[in-house]
Write a structure and sequence with these properties.
There is one protein chain. By secondary structure, this protein is an alpha+beta fold. About 30% of the residues lie in helices and about 30% in strands. It is built from one helix and five strands. A five-stranded antiparallel sheet has the order 1-2-3-4-5. The radius of gyration is 12 Å and the shape is globular. The relative contact order is 0.23. The model has no long low-confidence stretch (mean pLDDT about 90).
Length: about 90
């Protein structure tokens, strides 16, 4: 798992898919042992939204809005053969 950012106790990560990339570019967010998955383009919660705190969900969505281009660049880069990624400053 590539750790891309951390802010207010929220960890943002991304990982390459075993059999190529999914159709939807997404990130994973962790906060106090809870995980949620967010679509980068729509900011929709794809999984884990029921257990992820509302305030932290809103912070992750704001982070995605601010860093959408960097997240998409990471999504493309992490799925290349060299699998490189770069951290994002908040």
């Amino acid at each position: 798992m590539a750790t891309l950012a951390m802010f207010y106790g929220i960890l943002i990560g991304m990982k390459p898919e075993q059999n190529g990339k999914h159709h939807r570019a997404h990130i994973h967010a962790w906060y106090q042992g809870k995980e949620a998955t967010f679509d980068i383009l729509t900011r929709e919660v794809l999984a884990g939204g029921d257990n992820f705190p509302k305030d932290q969900t809103n912070m992750v969505k704001a982070f995605i809005a601010i860093h959408e281009a960097e997240l998409l660049a990471n999504w493309e880069s992490i799925h290349r053969p060299d699998g490189k990624y770069f951290p994002i400053d908040k």
